């Protein structure tokens, strides 16, 4: 995004030492943009936040308001952005709002916010954690929310597939049976190769599964079976993705000239 405002906005220009002390730990992207924008050009700030779609930036912007840096209209801007469904709900804000709430209110909060932040599933009642549609909404937004689902739904193939397709690391929360399901594991390692570590021993020895994993993340070779760490095509794919995977190859393949070259070991 091009620089829109000239100089520092109100609250910065008159006291650079204070600004530096208060803002020195903020995300550099946000700090730079806030300094660039004049206080009257809040639309530009909002567009910047929307483009990044990151609650981290919103959280930092909120810190500006809390620190009272005399930036006009910052508090209303923060309040307005909080109402936009495209923004994720910060965990800090969730903790604050739910600390004193009763279960009924918590469930309502979870139902209203789960599509924005799958993490809120952790605050739901047992009934909500066992609600197929609500849990699906949660894991589609954040695969890691699978850990908060009921035991029954962590063993539900459709739920787990939705979770690992959003984030392969969610495989670790799936039932033992589904961690041995080739389709589920293949979906997970295609997204996050390192998730191979949570697959069943049998699937760690399946060539197509391991190939998918190392093509996404060469380091996944460390979780492959001994036989596949000695299989040339698998090792070659791994070191081409990440030369560091060379250390997990069999000693015989570590002496292979093509594999050494691909790993940058010549």
Structure commentary:
This protein has three domains: 16-82, no CATH class; 93-167, no CATH class; 176-266, no CATH class. The chain contains 15 helices and no strands. It has helices spanning 16-23, 28-36, 42-52, 55-66, 74-82, 91-98, 103-113, 126-129, 132-141, 157-166, 182-191, 207-216, 232-241, 251-254, 257-262. The relative contact order is 0.05.
Helix-strand blueprint:
Elements: H1 16-23, H2 28-36, H3 42-52, H4 55-66, H5 74-82, H6 91-98, H7 103-113, H8 126-129, H9 132-141, H10 157-166, H11 182-191, H12 207-216, H13 232-241, H14 251-254, H15 257-262
Helix pairs in contact: 4-5, 9-10, 10-11, 11-12, 12-13
What is the H/E string?
HHHHHHHHHHHHHHH
Total beta-strand segments: 0
Q: How many independent structural domains?
A: 3
Distance between the termini: 43 Å
Please tell me the overall pLDDT.
75
Helix tally equals 15
Helix content: 40-55%
Sequence stretches where pLDDT stays below 50 over 5 or more residues: 1-42, 65-75, 81-89
Query: What gross morphology would you assign?
Result: elongated
Specify the biggest β-sheet.
none
Broad structural category: mainly alpha
Q: Over the alpha carbons, how many angstroms does the gyration radius reach? A: 24 Å
**Strand fraction:** under 5%
């Amino acid at each position: 995004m091009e620089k829109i405002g000239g100089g520092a906005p109100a609250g910065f220009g008159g006291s650079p030492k204070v600004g530096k002390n208060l803002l020195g730990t903020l995300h550099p992207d946000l700090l730079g943009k806030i300094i660039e924008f004049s206080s009257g050009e809040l639309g530009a700030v909002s567009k910047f936040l929307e483009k990044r779609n990151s609650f981290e930036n919103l959280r930092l912007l909120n810190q500006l308001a809390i620190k009272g840096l005399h930036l006009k209209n910052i508090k209303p801007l923060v309040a307005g952005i909080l109402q936009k469904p495209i923004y994720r709900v910060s965990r800090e804000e969730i903790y604050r709002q739910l600390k004193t709430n009763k279960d009924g209110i918590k469930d309502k909060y979870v139902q209203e916010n789960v599509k924005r932040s799958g993490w809120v599933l952790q605050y739901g009642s047992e009934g909500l954690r066992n609600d197929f549609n609500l849990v699906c909404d949660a894991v589609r937004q954040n695969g890691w929310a699978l850990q908060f689902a009921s035991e029954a739904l962590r063993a539900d193939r459709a739920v787990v597939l939705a979770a690992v397709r959003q984030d392969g690391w969610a495989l670790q929360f799936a039932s033992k049976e589904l961690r041995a399901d080739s389709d589920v594991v293949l979906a997970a390692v295609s997204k996050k190769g390192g998730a191979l570590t949570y697959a069943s021993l049998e699937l760690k020895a399946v060539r197509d599964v391991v190939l998918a994993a190392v093509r996404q993340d060469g380091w996944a070779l460390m979780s492959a079976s001994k036989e596949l760490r000695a299989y040339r095509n698998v090792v070659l794919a791994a070191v081409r993705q990440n030369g560091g995977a060379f250390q997990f190859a069999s000693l015989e393949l570590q002496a292979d000239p093509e594999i050494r070259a691909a790993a940058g070991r010549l």
